[in-house]
Amino acid sequence: MAAAAEVPVAVITDDRAIHRRSFRNFAAIICAGGRLGRRPARPGRTVGKDLGMPRPRIVIVGAGFAGYAAARHLLRASRGRAEIVLLNPTDYFLYLPLLPEVATGILEPRRISVPLAATLPGVRVLLGHAGAFDLDARTVEWADPEGNRGVLGYHRLVLAVGSVNKLLPVPGVTEYAHGFRGIPEALYLRDHLTRQIELAEQATDPAERRARCTFVVAGAGYTGTEVAAQGTLFTAALTAHRPLIRDLPRWLILDTADRVLPTLDPRLSHSAAQVLRHRGVRVLTGTAVEQAGPDGVRLTNGEQVPTRTLVWCVGVRPEPLVSGLGLATRDGRLVVDEFLNVPGRPDVFACGDAAAVPDVIHPGSLTGKTAHHAVRQGRLVAGNVAASYGHGQRRAYRHRDLGFVVDLGGWKAAANPFGVALGGVAGKAVSRGYHLLSMPGNRVRVVADWMLDGVLTRQGVQLGLVRGSAVPLAADDRN
């Protein structure tokens, strides 16, 4: 951000001093009735900035599902009596569940990119990456996209740094596979699929044609299943006017589990598998990629698959930043209690994929890394941060899943709202209704794109905006 480029070292030092002064004045603010979300206790008394005191600063790192929800609800609770700072690498919240529709030409990328500044008025948005944390001094070092660095003091810290692609020690994967976690990967995949179809049409070698028209998805979870289901419709549309290769596209989806969508309701798994097979997708369970190369992949069942496309959707792992905090972790996730508070650090909270949130409904286990949990944890952490200032009572995280939706493209979807299994048009209606209700913005634009896709053919052109070298699978290890 422009503001970051203008922050000299002297101002950074002042920021720490402001942090110390503001912390010393916490008791005065509370006694004056300036607790988050409450009016002054007695008429005529003013608090916070009216007393010449800096407002308490709450820093949220990450604007995914958890971080965005936390910022939104803290903004409502504070009513301007706290400074809320949101540090994020992008200036938008990404509605990740609709990313496959960007990759297959249904939605334009800005439709699922909700601007932070416009939807969180009153929140100070800093564009950049978090670096080192000094939890004793209560400071965060950060850098903006142009390399300018700053130090940010805080009174409460909310870590919602999310997750990155899960890497496995498979030869060739980091060189020849591409992940699917953001807008750049989706734009690259759309161009890549289009390019392979176009190059297959002009190839003279039948073996090369088949290889370019073969697409492998590793991982049959939520993302992988949707990519394969949506992708097969996209390549069918691309070859509809290319008689030479019209019948060549084939998709493979593989997973080490015994079924697709292994973590969801078996009924959803069965419905999704039926749709995939009906569209000609080859489903290989109990199978993984053993080695990847420029001309194909070798599977653990011994099969060699000639292909130029390997989409890596084997799952996610916590953001590597967590491991450098010097705090306790479990399975790579930051240990927190049921109130989403880091033990021994009453001023530090964590939520979302990077937090090891105990599942009080299933003692001994952790909550899953899903958007459902992340949103609800973000809301709860906002309330518990407010409670730490004396506004309301803190609550433990407790959540029962009300169901999941899996959009399979076309008029197909699988959903189980309140445990009722739905498929076909009914499942599609529930799926799209759920997404519209869950999106914090851009709903009209999304509906408009859906309507246009229903009556117009998709534009199968390459834009060349993102090259493969710009979205390497191992890029998430930058920290």
What would your notes on this structure say?
With 479 residues, the protein is α/β, with parallel strands linked by helices. It folds into two domains: 195 residues, 3-Layer(bba) Sandwich (FAD/NAD(P)-binding domain); 218 residues, FAD/NAD(P)-binding domain, CATH 3.50.50. It has a five-stranded parallel beta sheet, with helices on one face. The chain is globular and about 70 Å long. The two termini are 21 Å apart. The N terminus is likely disordered. It holds the Pfam family Pyr_redox_2.
Beta strand % = 15-25%
**What is the topology, as strand order, of the major beta sheet?**
5-2-1-9-21
- Structural class call reads alpha/beta
Given the structure, what is the number of helices?
14
CATH topology of the largest domain: FAD/NAD(P)-binding domain
| Total domain count | 2
In helices, the fraction of residues equals 25-40%
Number of strands: 25
> Rounded to an integer, what's the Rg over CA atoms?
24 Å
Low-confidence stretches: 1-53
What characteristic shape results from the CA principal axes?
A: globular
Q: For this structure, what is the CATH class of the largest domain?
A: Alpha Beta
The main pleated sheet reads as: 5 strands, parallel
Overall pLDDT confidence: 88
Oligomer: single chain
CATH architecture heading of the largest domain: 3-Layer(bba) Sandwich
Gap between N and C termini, in Å?
A: 21 Å
Family: Belongs to the NADH dehydrogenase family.
Keywords: FAD, Flavoprotein, NAD, Oxidoreductase
Protein name: FAD/NAD(P)-binding domain-containing protein
InterPro entries: FAD/NAD-bd_sf, FAD/NAD-binding_dom, NDH-2
